[in-house]
Structures are given as structure tokens and as C-alpha cells.
Sequence to fold (210 residues):
Amino acid sequence: MEELQESELGSQEYWDNRYKEEIENFQDHGDPGEIWFGEDTVERLIKWIEKNETATKESKILDVGCGNGMFLIELATEGYTNLFGVDYSKDAITLAKSIAQKQGFEIQYSECDILEHLDGQFDIIHDKGTYDAISLNANIKEFRGKYLENVHKALDPNGFFIITTCNWTKDELNEHFRNHFVCVDNIPTPQFQFGGKTGNTVTSLVYRKI
Fold:
């Protein structure tokens, strides 16, 4: 299976610089920044969580690579109260905390490199674009192993790991994750048609730990 080509999006320097700019935009204009993969994708993810019989408003939910924290803001808006976000960019965490404070939500954000450690035990772990960024690093094979090991360890035995990607298909993710997770659901995402074939620009999958 081919790996993705190395890109600056796989470096911490790129994201530190990006979130420095977003902090300035938020301070100057109140703009929280981009919602990755669009609001429709976020709505579909939250709808899946709400329909899941084992999830409650008190479920312990972790967003890995939370960036500006907008996914957790949307969950807080829907009444979820046990929310955590981690990112290896200090400026991303600064921005996320500022946005949450301005909107009056208590969300626990912390600076953390999930390739080094991931503390806690969570009912739901969510990744929207973080695995994509890791996959654009020259050390993907090493980083993938650390990522899977730490996410697997931090997920409750009965919990769910939800991942959204624009770089990998369901079959590719299943191959990557086969020693740690099993796919249990496919969250519908926008489709496109080209040449008589139908495909997806974004893939959202739900996994249980093995």
C-alpha cells in the first residue's frame, strides 16, 4: 500500500505558524478560524453520537489534534459537558481556550503530543484531520504505530474511536488499523460523481478497539 507524499502539513512548524495567525485574527476580528471538512461533516458526526444509545451528555469525549476546538464547541452547544481537547501546538490550545471562554463553555484543553503519550480513559475519541497530518510526515510508519498504540490505550473497552479523513479510504484505514481496531459503522459523507462513478471526498468511520 502506497504512503502519502511528505508535505509541510505534516510538520509542527506549519501548524504553529498557522495558529499564530489565527490567534491574531480572533483577537482582531473575532474569527475563530476554519472548521475542517466543513460544518456539514461536523453535524453528521454529532448526529451519530446523539443516536448512539451508549453515549450520553456526560460521556467523556476527547478530540485529538483539536486545533481551534470548534468540534468541541459544537458538542458543548448541544449540551455535552465532559469534553477534552489536545493538540501539540501551544498556539492552537491558546486559541481554543480563548474561543471557549468567549462563548462561556468549560472545555478542558491541554498541550499534548499524542505520539508521545495520551493520558486518561475516554468513551469517545475523535480525530478529524490529525491522522491525515501525521500521514504527511516522513516518519509515517513510526508515527502510525505510536498513534495507534496511544489511541487504543486511551479508549475505554466499550468506547468508540471516530475518525474523519480526506486522504484515506475505508479499506486503507481498515488495513492500517487491523491490529488495534475494527470498523463498526460508516458515517455518511458528501458524495461526488465523475465518469459515471460515485465517490466520497471525505471518509468518516467508527471503530471499536480489539
About this structure: The helical segments are 12-29, 38-51, 70-77, 90-103, 130-134, 140-154, 170-177.
